[in-house]
Design a protein that fits this description.
Helix content is about 55%, strand content about 5%. The chain has about 550 residues and is mostly helical.
Length: about 550
């Protein structure tokens, strides 16, 4: 049979929600949730943090007096959570890309220095502190100030630290966890800190309810509400959140979806189905419905059998829940609608493929379903398998199963790659691409000293958006020598299809190396940047895309 086997005549248990191991890396663990991590604190992290702090201090131009006092107290060894948050904001500015992937160093340092409760409080205080650039962009100094309360925010810098604190709290013993919850109540004075507290300790569902009310209130604070979404613990909360546009739009991220399943369980099914109607090609949403071991979730899949992804999803659910499939498909198979006919076809195949399962299920089927299922059982397993010599040869020896010598590739000798290199613009195309430089789509050149900007670029101290500003708006005599070696990646490639156009319009063939690099990395979005180029490497790449990449084929044929 497909799915689980029958052992000792017992039907399989199809009521337990078992989440895939592949979801593990995307779930923010919670106390009492499915994902239980055995985690330990890095006791060497405190020394790492202090070394990084010494490196960051020269960039520290000043701060609000209260922040400065708290920071000095923390540096002196006092358990000052606000001071620790100030230190973390500074240290994050001097992290390299490889180190920024391991923010547990900072949170583990806090836990090592003053305990888990202190680490949790410091993580919350991150929401009260913001760092702003001061002085020349080529030689940035940073000024710390309190974040204006109850304003919109996008928590890019410190979200990984907060996530690490949640991991430690989820794995803590009961006494340590309860002590942290009690201490965090005093830190719920502002919108962002309330959000962080609920993210850290989602067991306090009364606090989550307060945030749901605030998030769905007309005219409330906009911005990033993902921490609230990862704190939800009931289907009622999720249904309420889904009705609010700016919250619903954030439900499409994998870490939020999988964390919701961990926190709410099978109750997510109705909302996931509504999201699926908005995003019918979203494989994560289909995968969640398939995994949920309830009649409701199975019926929601069957309701969508008339969609292209619906049939594979239902077949996957049939494999995971073979007994439930018989009941729910039979219930849906009555009538002449497209879905009813499709449900009957799936049911017929399932029944006839699994005679052992049917022998156990048929006697206990409800009376209203047995007449629908029984006709599909007639005749299965009664016909003997035909011998190979009784079949046409093509059925037992298909052509693709017979080994044949590989055909030799046709090679045309004496061809040379042309060295012609040029730009060929469509009418008005270059002017349209160049307008984006003058039209304010990207910031003007933000550096006081071009030579200092180049020096910062070569040293690797420019941020990704400063790279874009330098190359799209910097003095041409400064930028041209840098183009051949520039390989924009990571966040630099965001919106490359927009800022890359003025780059090509401005520098022509000299812009090919960075543009070619981006197009190879992200052909779906950056391929069109190569349209004006007439060069051997672009022609070769287009030929490859034409036969291999559906997403880039329109550009290759343009």
């Amino acid at each position: 049979m497909s799915g689980r086997k029958i052992a000792g005549g017992q039907l399989p248990d199809e009521t337990a929600l078992v989440l895939p191991v592949s979801w593990r890396e995307h779930i923010h663990p919670r106390r009492g949730g499915w994902l239980r991590l055995a985690t330990s604190v890095n006791t060497d992290a405190a020394a790492f943090l202090m070394a990084k702090l010494d490196e960051a201090l020269p960039l520290f131009a000043g701060a609000d007096a209260a922040l400065l006092t708290a920071f000095r107290a923390y540096r002196a060894g006092e358990a000052d959570p606000l001071g620790a948050a100030v230190a973390a904001q500074l240290v994050l500015r001097v992290y390299g890309d490889d180190e920024r992937a391991g923010p547990e160093h900072i949170v583990d340092a806090w836990a090592t220095q003053h305990g888990l409760t202190f680490a949790a409080e410091a993580a919350v205080e991150l929401g009260r502190v913001e760092l702003e650039a001061a002085g020349s962009k080529a030689a940035v100094n940073w000024v710390l100030r309190f974040r204006a309360p109850d304003t919109a925010f996008h928590f890019w810098v410190a979200d990984a630290l907060v996530a690490r604190a949640r991991v430690l709290l989820a794995a803590a013993d009961d006494d340590s966890y309860d002590a942290a919850v009690e201490a965090l109540e005093a830190h719920r004075g502002e919108h962002l800190t309330r959000m962080i507290v609920s993210f850290l300790v989602p067991t306090r569902q009364d606090w989550v309810d307060e945030l749901c009310a605030a998030g769905t209130m007309r005219g409330g604070v906009k911005g990033d509400w993902s921490m609230l979404l990862c704190s939800l613990g009931s289907a009622k909360q999720l249904e309420k959140v889904h009705l609010t546009t700016h919250l619903r739009e954030q439900l499409n991220y994998r870490d939020i979806l999988y964390t919701l399943v961990d926190g709410i369980g099978t109750g997510v099914a109705p909302t996931v189905a509504l999201l699926l109607d908005r995003h019918p090609k979203d494989r994560d949403l289909w995968g969640i419905l398939v995994r949920l071991p309830t009649d409701e979730a199975f019926d929601l899949l069957v309701d969508r059998l008339d969609t292209k992804p619906g049939l594979p999803a239902v077949l996957a659910a049939v494999k995971d829940y073979p007994v439930r499939a018989i009941h729910r498909l039979a219930a849906a198979a009555g009538g002449n609608s497209v879905n009813a006919v499709a449900a009957g076809q799936v049911l017929r195949g399932h029944v006839q493929e699994n005679p052992v399962l049917m022998a156990a299920v048929l006697p206990v089927l409800p009376d209203d379903l047995r007449p629908i299922v029984e006709p599909f059982t007639v005749g299965y397993g009664q016909l003997p398998e035909a011998p190979a010599d009784a079949l046409p040869a093509i059925l037992h020896s298909p052509p693709w199963a017979v080994a044949r010598p590989a055909a030799s590739a046709v090679v045309v000798q004496g061809l040379a790659v042309p060295e012609h290199r040029a730009l060929k613009w469509a009418t008005g195309e270059r002017e349209a691409w160049k307008v984006q430089v003058d039209g304010g789509l990207y910031p003007a050149f933000p550096f006081d000293d071009a030579a200092a900007a180049v020096k910062s670029y070569r040293s690797g101290s420019l941020d990704w958006y400063e790279h874009i500003s330098l190359f799209t708006a910097g003095p041409e005599n400064v930028v041209r020598p840098l183009l051949a070696a520039w390989r924009p990646g990571g966040q630099c490639s965001w919106d490359a299809q927009y800022w890359g156009k003025p780059l090509v319009a401005r520098y022509g063939l000299e812009a090919l190396p960075p543009v070619l690099h981006m197009a190879k990395a992200k052909p779906a979005t950056a391929a069109e940047l190569l349209l004006p180029f007439v060069t051997p490497e672009v022609a070769s790449l287009m030929a490859d895309w034409l036969v291999r990449l559906k997403s880039a084929r329109p550009t290759a044929t343009a």
